Amino acid sequence: MTTHFDTIIIGGGPSGLMASIASASNGNSTCLIEKNKQLGKKLLISGGGRCNVTNNVPYEEIIKHIPGNGKFLYSPFSIFDNQSIIEFIESNGVPLKEEDHGRMFPVTDKSKDILNVFLNKLSELNVSVQTETTVNSIEYDSETKLYNIITKQQSYQCTHLVISTGGKSVPKTGSTGDGYKFAAQFGHTITELFPTEVPILSDEPFIQSNELKGLSLKGIALSVLDKKGKPVITHEMDMLFTHFGISGPAALRCSQFVYKQQKKQKTKQIKMAIDLFPNKNETELMKEVTNLIAENKNKLIINSLKSILQERFIQLLIDRLNIDIETTGHHLKNEDKIHLVKTLKHFSFSVNGTKSIEDAFVTGGGIKLKEINPKTLESKLQNNLYFSGELLDIHGYTGGYNITSALVTGYVAGYSTTLK
Ligand SMILES: Cc1cc2nc3c(=O)[nH]c(=O)nc-3n(C[C@H](O)[C@H](O)[C@H](O)COP(=O)(O)OP(=O)(O)OC[C@H]3O[C@@H](n4cnc5c(N)ncnc54)[C@H](O)[C@@H]3O)c2cc1C
Q: Could you tell me which residue ranges the RsdA/BaiN/AoA(So)-like insert domain spans (predicted)?
């Protein structure tokens, strides 16, 4: 049996859901095909189950936070942007709240409420939703100009096809990279895929010994360094030491640069550095440390510094600088104090990679954007074929930027299928 639709969307993540709604609300008979039993599996676990659905900042800020080709979104934004997302969710009965850095969440803190907006809308618009249906292959008939979507159960025909199958990260949510194969079949280039927003690995003895495991540093500046020791990127946020390396927001944001430096430097071991006091220059910090030590001359250094840094980290610094643990302020040599302050501003260590693409929050790389029309998300190589979401070569930092990109490109792709 074959059923015909004006538009078929493959993939029921945020991008495919939005594409389906945009297509159906503009009059196309629409079918959404999803391999899982449930739609939006990744959306449900997003934002720690709270779904950071978008970000309430100006375009320039959004683009800045999408280091993987964010500029491509300027064009789609002129049709549907972050404000349209907020308006869409809220006008469908789910109020949003703004948290730090413009991050938008449902007031209820439940991603399910966001998903329900999409589910209700699909049903209101009579979108035919085929769950537990995996698309195995796609055929295009150049005579009838129709797509044949083949699944185990049956095949479906459509005039316009939107592929929104996501990346390769967290495959248990259904994002297993099927779309790359479909895109390649139509002649599209897939740029190199790599893990982004992923914890970083290190075989430094202080990591392997677990001495800092669980220690979190607030508001530090974390950098990835080039061959010459110069920062290629710095992120001022929180970070966390783990039993395998580092994690937390600053580390996640730096992760793709570790991957890229490994390629560039043609070596596994990459240097990173932490500035523990990014808001103070070395002179200011020296003054503060000098005063602290002077006020507590008879105290052990490790105790004097406790007011500005966690004890476990001070211990590590003292070991690294070969300062005797029993040293009091009175006995601290001036050169050791200088080294100490320098190390607080530049604590360098080696990392040797990141966790895998499957463990990553986001997949970097994807369908080459030069082959996609930014105004419509239509393929420049194949008529009436559209791509949206993480499948494209667009990747952002955490903070609502990836779902924003998925929803914006999804909307424009779905809407564009109704224009011709
Ligand atoms: C743990 C976690 C938390 C995150 N939190 C946030 C956050 O708070 N904010 C944010 O902006 N981003 C977040 N992200 C990233 C964000 O969730 C993704 O970028 C976004 O879901 C991508 O949307 P998408 O629709 O393109 O793809 P996906 O959400 O991956 O959806 C693709 C869908 O296609 C289906 N599919 C695949 N192949 C086939 C096939 N052959 N046939 C049928 N169906 C198929 C899949 O089952 C899946 O449902 C998070 C990611 C993770 C892993």
A: 195-362
